[in-house]
Design goal:
1 helix; elongated
């Protein structure tokens, strides 16, 4: 079974066993939580080189993992406002496209990794939570050119996103997120990656 199929299957299994796990954990969960998401699509905003074969401006094997700390909840308009802070790591899968260089646009295959800190403000009503995120991240982009050679560049930039979560119980929740992450592949190629991901989190 491919990774694309294993990850959604694992989420379904998690949804099935989480209520059983909760029955043995009666105490209310604490402020610390962690989670991971599979990025099923990431739009890079890159452009293909004319005539480039097998060009895909969106990578499909991405991911993020995070650990967070929640502050005191605040009652607001019939729901609950939940401020948190998170340390998050990003992994950007391979994208086949054109990349701007000093010698013009060249066909290549790019990836990135990153580490960031962000503030999260969620609004919870019943089992659902809507949230917004804002922070900064350090990313490293790398591209291997099809004609030979490579580039590797670092960047520090603003990250932001929105998400929705559904609580399976007091500890487990499923998440659907969108994140915008800045990436620099070469001295001439900087872009913002829009990552759409599905995942789960556990609150200790």
């Amino acid at each position: 079974m491919s990774f694309k199929l294993r990850f959604p299957a694992a989420l379904l299994a998690l949804a099935a066993i989480a209520p059983l796990h909760a029955s043995a954990a009666d105490p209310a969960p604490g402020p610390i939580y962690m989670g991971a998401s599979y990025g099923f699509r990431a739009s890079t905003g890159l452009d293909c080189v004319p005539g480039q074969n097998d060009c895909d401006k969106s990578s499909k094997r991405n991911g993020k993992a995070y650990v967070g700390y929640s502050f005191d909840a605040l009652r607001f308009q019939g729901g609950v406002a939940l401020p948190s802070i998170e340390l998050v790591g990003y992994m950007g899968g391979e994208v086949k496209s054109g990349f701007d260089t000093d010698a013009g646009r060249r066909a290549g295959r790019g990836k990135f990794t990153g580490l960031g800190m962000q503030g999260v403000l969620g609004y919870q009503f019943d089992a659902f939570t809507l949230s917004g995120r804002l922070g900064a991240a350090y990313t490293q982009g790398k591209v291997d050119y099809l004609g030979g050679g490579s580039d590797k560049k670092d960047k520090i930039g603003l990250t932001y996103g929105i998400g929705a979560a559904y609580a399976l119980n007091k500890n487990w929740a499923l998440h659907l997120d969108w994140d915008r992450v800045p990436v620099k592949y070469s001295s001439k190629q900087t872009t913002k990656v829009d990552m759409f991901s599905l995942g789960a989190s556990y609150r200790f």
